[in-house]
Amino acid sequence: MTTRATPVKLFQGTRPGGYLFSLPYLVFFLAFVAYPLIFSFLLMFHRWNLVSPMEWVGLKNFIRLSRDPLFFKSLVNTLFFLMIHIPLQITVALGFALLLNENIAGRGFFRGIYFLPVVVSGVAVTILWQQLFSYDFGLLNGFLAAVGIGPVPWLIDVHFAMPSIALMATWKNVGIYIVLFLAGLQSIPHELYEAASIDGARPVRQFFSITLPLLNPTVMVIVVLSTIGGFSLFIEPYILTGGGPMESTLSGMLYIYNQAFYFGHMGYAATLGFVYALVIFGVVLLQRRVIERDVTQ
Amino acid sequence: MKRLGTYLVLLAGALMFAYPFLWMLAASLKPEAAINGLGLWSKEFTGVNYEKVFVKIPILRAFLNSLIVSGCTTASVVVFGSMVGYALSRLEFPGRRALYLVILFTMMIPFQIVLIPQYILMVKLGWTDTYLSLIAPTMISAFGIVLFRQFFAAIPQALIDAARIDGCSELRILFRIVWPLSRPVLITVALLTFMTNWNEVLWPMMVVRDRSLMTMPQMVALFSTGGEAESQLGYLLAAATLLAAPVVIAYAFFQRYFIESMASTGLKG
Whole-model pTM? Predict the structure, then answer.
């Protein structure tokens, strides 16, 4: 019996193949991550419309940003969106998840239906909701009229437009959070509820003392993902309102897009992108400090 | 009694999420004048809205473009991603840990920072208005790599050792031994990548102006915001239905995979 090599030699030591296998990522990283990152830092200090040569402007882009009412408007709009979207999303998702967590026949069916809007293209969903939101002939106002309310100026009123988009975004995304909450609920040990029952805690008390605290990690994930989603809002206002009425639905991403592709301000658009990224980091850090609890003890 | 209430609420929920889609499908099959009210039924159904969409915009071409772009991206993310994931989990080499940390770091970068420079890169390479600009920047997914690494790390070392003793190359080990054992993660990554790319609209709107290269979401978005739909609701809803249909059909068959993969990752499509 012959062996071609001793196992010890085979299984130990470094394998240069590792570099070869990682090569696709390295090329990708240099071209589409590292280069754009470095270039974005350069771009922020230039004025450039892609046609004429780049012009060094120092901190002008940042100064301009600090005085740009549309930048602040888009920021306020996004925060307004998040203030409605996040609580609504958590409430609705948790409500359905609690119901589905009971001993329900057809759980898979319901879960499947609730999840449907998550997989459908945002463009299709937005076109559909444009009709639902229509003032005169929309499905929502038709439904409200049937129960004696309305009509609501969903997209045409300055105060309603952003909440309407938040409503639509919640409808589209809530399915995934129902599934996340359901998974969270199923990971809570049954003994905790039994012990609480023996101690005489009512279901409401059990919910606030056991369920909610133990779902904290799930809540945190949902808050962070919704926040990132809120700052990425683009096609929804683009199709529904074009950012109006009176810039009330101008989102950060829509503003960056307009600056870059409507006005050709590449340097300023890059500056906006950078500052928005900083804001996202800041908001997420703040959320973690306020919401995150250690539930392992 | 309480259970009845639970079912009623769950059913109301199901209606809330499904009815708008049913309404859209029904409305897209009605003549313009009949699209009103809350109901689904109409005395008259017609295919005229779909006919108009096919005449007014190259929707079939857009469908093919979407298929090409999403297909290439998915194949690349799965093949290259699993190679890197295999290297990170099964091949010792100096710098491996650092590479993994870099990959994790890149996942934290908000895309808003790199979007404009990436677009400029496409312009400088002369890739705008080509498939390359739609495919190249998404050919690798850091997220996919992390999922592959995690899954491959759990495969028994004995299997890999046995293959090495038999003189298998590492590539052969990956594709002949590791892949067949990794169906769940392969499907998860493929499905997520395909769906994300199928639905992506911002990036195509930046790099493609040529109508014959537009993907479906971009084409339909343009149709809805431009004047081509002539404010005809039926045309718009037909276009939106065509855009939604492929994913909904795929979802009908692979529902569990869709839900499980997206829930396991917490990723939004």
Answer: 0.90
